[in-house]
Amino acid sequence: MEYTKSLFFSSDPRAGIDNISQDGSSFTISLNNPIKIPHDASDCTLEVTQANIWNTSPNIGTEFSNNIFQFKTSHKANPGTHTIVIPDGLYSLNGLNKFLQLEFSNLGLPVGLILLTGSSSTQQTIFTFSIAGDSIDFTLADSCNDILGFDSRIAPATPQAASYNEYSDNGAEFNRVNSYGIRSNIVSSGLPLNNQAIGLIASIPITATPGKLIIYEPYNPIRVDANELIGNPRSNLEFTLIDQVGRNTPTNSEHYNFILTIRWMI
Questions:
Q1: Do 171 and 149 meet the contact criterion of CB atoms below 8 Å apart?
Q2: pTM of the complete model
Q3: Which end of the chain has the lower number of beta carbons within 10 A, N or C?
Q4: How far, in Å, are 7, 97, 130, 228 from residue 45 at the CA level?
Q5: Strand 68-73 relative to strand 135-137: parallel, antiparallel, unpaired?
């Protein structure tokens, strides 16, 4: 006969968790009623049957060392070198361009001074300079060059005429997070990440646009071997939201939750 036990977990501190990491990716909880799978059970598995995750994990931020945009202009309104610090956030190409235009305006410079667009065919980014001789310095340690596909260099390398288009050296990398995963100490192995056993209990595709809620309700959720729970009660649990390569994924102050279902036979 099959038995099941379902548990709802949330990273929201108001839900009574013990601790949450500063970036919101990890939380711990001590269960009042430990998870107990009988000694005579067999074929124990667990699965994440439902999850809610906000698609807000930043792709630009201080911790990623990619939040500086420095440029030089000869525009008469405010000539010289200017440094823009990009706030932590999840940016698209269009979203970053809009932010830069607002910052140009705040500096007393015209909107459209440097336009950021992209090529869908090559995935390259393109900067269009309205003033002759203007440039962007991508050599700074915290420059946003990687996400835009530029090598560490001055762009353009030599002064150019007005309306010049500068193409990135490589494809843009705005998709820092391609999918989410939930890692836990409830099992020691879980789903292998290539050849690594990291306690991965779910892999969750991104099905919502930036800033929207991902609602994960798999028709056939992947079952993870949990035979180690048999006869070994668990009460102190840790959960971490990770990306496709196992990195802890900041939540940008949003909370995530999920339902964990444990199954066993007697």
A1: yes
A2: 0.84
A3: N
A4: 14, 47, 61, 10
A5: antiparallel
196 band by pLDDT with thresholds 50, 70 and 90: confident
Class of domain 2-57+177-265: mainly beta
Q: Cα–Cα distance between 117 and 114 in angstroms, integer?
A: 10
Distance, in Å, from the CA atom of 76 to the CA atom of 105, rounded to the nearest integer, reads 14
Q: For strand 179-184 and strand 234-242, is the pairing parallel, antiparallel, or unpaired?
A: antiparallel
Report the alpha-carbon distance of residue 57 to residue 206 in Å, rounded: 11
Average pLDDT over residues 147-152: 97
Residues of the chain with pLDDT > 90, as a percent, come to 94
The 10s digit of each residue's pLDDT in 31-45 is: 999 999 999 999 999
**What residues contact residue 58 under an 8 Å CB cut-off, 6+ apart?**
64, 88, 89, 90, 176, 250, 252
Domain segments of the chain as ranges: 2-57+177-265, 62-167
**Residue 1 is encoded by which pair of tokens?**
């006969």
Angle, CA of 158, 144 and 109, to the nearest 5°: 65
> Mean pLDDT, the chain, as a whole number?
95
> In the structure, what pLDDT confidence band is assigned to residue 195 with cuts at 50, 70 and 90?
confident
The predicted pLDDT at position 59 comes to 93
Residue 152 CB partners (closer than 8 Å, separation 6+): 138, 139, 143, 145
Name the pairing type of β-strands 19-20 and 114-118.
Answer: unpaired
Q: What is the pLDDT of residues 82-103, one digit of tens each?
A: 999 999 999 999 999 999 999 9
